[in-house]
Amino acid sequence: MRSFIVPLCLLVAAPLCAEGEPGHWFLDVHSVSGTLDGHYIGLQSGNDFSVDLKNDLGIGSKGTKPGFGLEYQGHRFGLELSSNQTEFTGSQAINRQVTINGQSFSAGALVNSDVKFQTTTFNWTIRALTWDHAWVGIDLGVRAINVTLDATGYNALSGVSAWANYKGGLPLPQVGLSTGVKFMEGRVLARAYYHTLNYKSASFVVTGADVRVFPLSWLGVMAYVNQAKLNVPQSAINDSANVVLNQNTTGGGVVLRF
């Protein structure tokens, strides 16, 4: 992810500095919770996968985790960097053979699993249309996904135990639209966005919205919702894998404006 952030920061530095009319910086700390489902069937780095997160592992949210965001919002441009992590856990007797990173778990085994799902987003907004209390922008950016999956299993009938681990990441460029409105002389800010990436029959779509209320000019509270969907059919890029991931997150916290 670092290789993407550095050149993008250099790219937007000049127009942000030359914007003229001053904007605002926002720094927020928030709690994150959500849901995750999907499957991976095929090969990854030569290792077999055949697992469904919900149906096979029965994963559910492990609780809320902290996240952060740093933004610049000006009259013509916007810049956003955010990072969130959600964690999930499951414990379920599987009814079929499940394979994770080359390690198989036989039907009937009790499998305990832990999943960490980290997302880091860098986004640059060009406000193409602006009015006194609203704007419409074009978004360019990248969303990096990092997944860690640990699973242990034990089959009471055969007495066989197994352990599997997988760590992987993928930076996904995205382009889309966003819109925002403000009320009460900037005391209330709301924003919604739609980002997408399509290649052949594969798709990655992110939608979301957030609201910020500032009882003080420099201190406020925020709430947001976000949905990300990754769908890579087996024939989309190559014949080695079929991948589906659906993530829904919600959050709320405090935000500083300066």
In short:
By secondary structure, the protein is mainly beta.
Structure description:
The chain is mainly beta. A 10-stranded antiparallel barrel has the order 1-4-5-8-9-10-11-12-13-14. Strands 6-7 form a two-stranded antiparallel sheet. The model is unreliable at 1-5 (pLDDT under 50). It has one domain: Lipocalin. The radius of gyration is 21 Å and the shape is elongated. It has one helix at residues 2-17; strands at residues 24-44, 47-52, 60-61, 65-73, 77-93, 98-100, 103-105, 110-130, 134-155, 160-183, 188-199, 202-213, 219-232, 241-257.
Q: Order of SSEs, N→C?
A: HEEEEEEEEEEEEEE
Parts with pLDDT < 50 across at least 5 consecutive residues: 1-5
Helical percent range? under 10%
Task: State the secondary-structure class.
Answer: mainly beta
- Trace the largest sheet across and list its strands: 1-4-5-8-9-10-11-12-13-14
Total domain count = 1
Rounded to an integer in angstroms, the radius of gyration calculated over CA atoms is 21 Å
For the report, how would you describe the main beta sheet?
10 strands, antiparallel, barrel
Question: In what range is the share of β-strand residues?
Answer: over 45%
Q: Shape from CA axes? A: elongated
CATH topology: Lipocalin
Counted beta strands = 14
Task: Specify the CATH architecture.
Answer: Beta Barrel
* Annotation field: number of helices: 1
Instruction: Please tell me the overall pLDDT.
Output: 91
